UniProtKB/TrEMBL annotation:
Taxonomic placement: Bacteria, Pseudomonadati, Bacteroidota, Cytophagia, Cytophagales
Organism this protein belongs to: Dyadobacter helix
Name of the molecule in the record: Glycosyltransferase RgtA/B/C/D-like domain-containing protein
Alphabetical keyword list: Membrane, Transmembrane, Transmembrane helix
Transmembrane segments: 6-24, 36-55, 67-85, 112-132, 216-234, 241-257, 269-298, 310-329, 445-467, 473-491, 496-512
Record bears the keyword Lipoprotein: no
């Protein structure tokens, strides 16, 4: 398969970098191998960026061009590697001896940690990233939806849409994912981008630990902590973008510290490139990076003087301008602003930043973000912790739930956007306290200070959202490093027991990821804990009647606006078993009890994170799958359509088969709006729009389901509807 050209190219570049001898002796063979891997990932990120931007100018983002480009590149890499080998023969015997010597020096227990982590985490997660199709809701709404629009248009310019976040949200992670689509003609390898980012982050995390004075055992400990981080586990197989952004962030930190120790010119380039690509993947990277930019800037001023520091600043400014300029120009040209639509355009723009800045609001934001990671599978405990946070806000005189922010809740949720890092946060808290009792760790102290300052900046600027667990990944990556170095000072060789405990505990998140369950462990965990939901949302009349007849002692007697029975009273431990059994007998947990990635068909796997959408369109799926012609998307709601497009694709995907045919008039200004799109079928969510805009004699047949319709027209049209 052509997809494998990409990992081969990454490997070849990493080997070619081995011939750079200037820093080799200073780092050691293992450190140099890890550094080479990071450089290769950065180099390929730059190559992908340039390829996308340049070929987009000529509508050249096609399967043929992409496969031809990567094939030629790999051939050139092989030629270069051969020439290097002829000129500077790789001292294979010496390299192998050094690697073997390094491996012998690793503690026996640490070797078993590595074996166990690979067996229980790396291999299963790699498999999951491939065998399970992308099923994250955000990915369906805009991350992947923008990719199939780009591929249908053969460029990355803005296009007409009903979900304008597809246009102005950061795009770099999708630039990379798009190449997995182009090379494989499918979405099979879309999840490997975040998985590869997780491997890169583990490598970078270990190298930063080394720069902070960590021995090989401490580097292994920090890597194990990252491998077992719940949000990292679930993100590593998703098609979100947070792990990609976090990888570039931690790489920025590594090359920053390397630049302080070894002032090589290329190190500054790698550092600037990492920051640019990280923030181009997620703007929040700027927030976490700001304290480190100040720290590195002051240190560069110390080490290189004013002129040298100005040159470094110029490199960073040029790199950020180089990366952001094309995208921001497209935004400004259409939206009137480089970041998001201005009001005059009449287009919606979400506001994720706080409205009022104050010290009290910063404390509030930090407390609530910390509160995302204190949840346990115990309603009574979670409600108690909620009450403490509420009391603290009353003392501060700050509104716990201001307008625009999510309602604060303490909960334990096994979801790849919101899972809490409770144990890791607890370890980090005690590690930060322990820092006060460690002498002679100045660099680590500044690292921890910058990490906490970045978290404070994030909490000050971003409104509270329940899914912010994933946007806090950069902070927790730094937390793994801090915790490893501090714990080593206090626990020494006993840290290996903590590592094994984390590995055993966190396997739950590998096996029971509700988006990609290998085993129905989530159900059995709930059964073991006698889990009682904070709200019961019946799926049928039988379940509804059961709650009304048997559980009104604890739950409301009527359905709320979300069609759920809300928990009214804390359920005593002795009654929790009874409540669980009652709900289990009426099939309330059946979906969790029987569904795994092995028992569900591919179509249903696409909808694991939003099963209601599957139920709404299920009756239409057979008819839609039989269609090979273009399908117009006529949505009244501002939703993405990736999952509906993906569920009807065969072995080779038709990237331009679906497009929005109803959108705001302003989108007609875009050049991509002029690309002719003829369709004979319409998939929509409001039959009224179909009746209003299409004449009766044009409509052949309309098939309906619970929430959608699929219409067949008598002949092809290219009509566009202004909504």
């Amino acid at each position: 398969m052509f997809f494998f050209i990409l990992p081969i190219s990454i490997l070849l570049i990493a080997i070619i970098v081995q011939y750079e001898q200037s820093i080799y002796k200073k780092m050691g063979v293992i450190g140099f191998l890890r550094r080479s891997f990071l450089i290769s990932l950065l180099a390929h990120s730059l190559i992908i960026f340039l390829f996308n931007e340049i070929l987009s100018l000529f509508d050249g983002l096609t399967i043929i061009n992409t496969r031809l480009f990567w094939s030629i590149l790999v051939i050139l890499e092989i030629v270069v590697l051969y020439e290097f080998y002829q000129t500077y023969p790789l001292r294979k015997g010496q390299a192998v001896r050094l690697i073997m010597q390094f491996w012998k020096n690793i503690r026996y227990a640490d070797k078993w940690l590595i074996y166990t982590a690979i067996l229980l985490y790396i291999i299963p997660l790699m498999i999951l990233s491939v065998i399970v199709p992308p099923n994250n809701f955000d990915a369906h709404s805009y991350h992947l939806n923008r990719i199939i629009e780009w591929l249908g248009n053969h460029n990355i310019n803005h296009y007409p849409t009903r979900h304008n976040q597809q246009l102005y949200h950061n795009v770099f992670a999708e630039y990379i994912v798009m190449h997995t689509f182009l090379l494989s003609e499918s979405d099979v390898f879309a999840g490997t981008v975040q998985f590869l980012a997780s491997i890169g982050s583990i490598v970078a995390c270990s190298l930063v630990t080394k720069r902070l004075g960590g021995t090989s055992s401490v580097q292994i400990l920090s890597s194990v902590m990252l491998v077992t981080l719940p949000i990292a586990i679930l993100e590593s197989t998703s098609v979100q973008v947070d792990y990609v952004a976090s990888f570039f962030f931690i790489t920025f930190l590594y090359f920053g510290y390397e630049a302080l120790d070894y002032p090589e010119g290329d190190t500054i380039i790698f550092m600037a490139l990492s920051l640019a690509f990280g923030s181009f993947s997620k703007y929040t990277i700027f927030m976490y990076s700001l304290p480190f930019c100040v720290y590195f800037g002051l240190r560069f001023l110390q080490l290189r003087g004013f002129i040298g520091s100005v040159k470094i600043f110029g490199i960073f400014a040029a790199m950020l301008f180089f990366v952001f300029m094309p995208f921001m120009f497209r935004n400004y040209d259409f939206f009137g602003d480089v970041l998001s639509p201005v009001k005059e355009t009449g287009l919606e723009a979400e506001n994720l930043t706080v409205k009022e800045f104050s010290f009290k609001n910063t404390i509030s934001g930090m407390v609530k973000n910390v509160g995302l990671h204190i949840g346990l599978p115990s309603n009574s405990y979670n409600l108690f912790m909620e009450s403490l946070v509420e009391k603290l806000h009353k003392m501060l005189g700050v509104n716990l739930n201001p307008d625009g922010a999510d309602t604060f809740l303490v909960r334990f949720v096994l979801h790849e956007d919101m899972v809490p890092n409770t144990i890791h946060q607890t370890i980090l808290f005690f590690s930060l306290v322990g820092l006060f009792f460690i002498k002679g760790k100045t660099r680590l102290n500044y690292f921890a200070l910058c990490a906490c300052a970045g978290f404070a900046i994030f909490s000050s600027l971003m409104i509270f959202q329940l899914w912010s667990s994933r946007t806090q990944m950069p902070f927790f990556l730094m937390g793994c490093i801090i915790s490893a170095v501090v714990l080593d000072r206090f626990l020494g060789k006993w840290t290996v027991y903590l590592s094994f405990a984390l590995i055993l505990f966190s396997t739950v998140f590998v096996l029971a990821n509700p988006s990609k369950p290998l085993v129905p462990l989530r159900y059995y965990s709930k059964k073991f804990l006698s889990y009682t939901p904070i709200a019961v949302c019946p799926q049928n009349k039988r379940q509804e009647l059961t709650v009304v007849r048997k559980l009104t002692k604890f739950y409301s007697a009527t359905l709320n606006k979300n069609k759920c029975f809300q928990l009214q009273n804390i359920i005593p431990r002795k009654d929790q078993d009874v409540v669980f059994e009652i709900l289990d007998k009426v099939g309330y947990f059946d979906e969790e009890k029987y569904e795994t990635v092995f028992t569900s068909d591919k179509t249903k796997l696409y909808f694991f994170n939003h099963p209601n959408d599957y139920e709404k369109c299920r009756d239409l799926i057979p008819r839609m799958k039989s269609v090979q012609e273009n399908i117009g998307i006529l949505f009244k709601a501002g939703n993405g359509y990736y999952h509906y497009w993906a569920m009807i694709q065969g072995d080779k995907y038709q990237f331009g088969q679906m497009k929005y045919i109803g959108y705001r008039p302003k989108y007609s200004e875009l050049s991509n709006a002029n690309q002719k799109f003829e369709y004979r079928y319409i998939f929509g969510d409001d039959p009224g729009l179909l009746k209003h805009y299409y004449k009766k004699n044009l409509i052949d047949t309309v098939y309906s389901s619970k929430g959608f319709y699929f219409a067949k027209l008598k002949w092809k049209v290219a009509d566009i509807i202004s909504l």
